[in-house]
Design brief:
elongated
Length: about 210
């Protein structure tokens, strides 16, 4: 008799567990839950792939690559300028003598060009902004070095440009002459050297090869 009562109670509990109130949705079957999870994961993977291939993300990656290439090109150009300083800062005029009777004279124009102050298409045009766009690629323990290098580059590039500009008016100023032109060009060289070294530091931090 007790056994019959126990079986009856178990049957009642099972019936209650299976009962669904009128108008209520039945509980999902295990296979339905698994299928729903697979659908969610599929949508997540597809969505992530779509985001990675979106124009905005692709454009950002393209800009980052272009910025890195410009810094490398800019560094190599400054190195070339320094290796060929006399030749690059000297202009010889064919069939036309200068104020002092010779055909060659020093000129600061190339200094301005190599530092990105003469053309918007130069690799170092607005180089400080270019390098700042790469700050997310900087290791955490090199952030201070990175910002100090940018600051040093900006200051010395501006000063070199100023010295070159003053040099371009060296002969026209009272008491000016070829020696004054050369003086300011050589002063600008010191700033170009620091600018080059600052770019080298940035390349090392970003693990870029010149």
């Amino acid at each position: 008799m007790n056994l019959l009562r126990l079986v009856a109670a178990a049957s009642a509990v099972a019936a209650c567990a299976a009962w669904v109130a009128p108008g209520a949705n039945p509980p999902p079957r295990p296979e339905a839950v698994a299928h729903g999870r697979r659908d969610f994961l599929t949508r997540l993977v597809v969505g992530s792939a779509a985001l990675a291939s979106s124009p905005t993300v692709a454009s950002a990656a393209s800009q980052e690559q272009k910025d890195k290439e410009n810094i490398v090109k800019g560094y190599n150009r400054l190195q070339y300028l320094l290796d060929n300083w006399e030749e690059e800062t000297t202009v010889c005029k064919t069939g036309q003598e200068t104020t002092f009777g010779d055909k060659c004279e020093r000129t600061p124009i190339k200094v301005m060009e190599y530092l990105g102050f003469k053309s918007t298409t130069d690799p170092l045009y607005l180089a400080d902004k270019t390098m700042m766009r790469l700050k997310d690629s900087v290791p955490g323990d090199r952030e201070v070095d990175f910002y100090e290098a940018i600051d040093a580059f900006s200051q010395n590039a501006e000063e070199a440009n100023s010295m070159a500009f003053v040099s371009s008016w060296g002969e026209a100023n009272p008491g000016g002459g070829k020696d004054r032109v050369k003086l300011f060009i050589e002063r600008s060289k010191k700033n170009v050297i620091v600018s080059r070294d600052s770019l080298k530091t940035v390349l090392e931090i970003l693990d870029l090869k010149p």
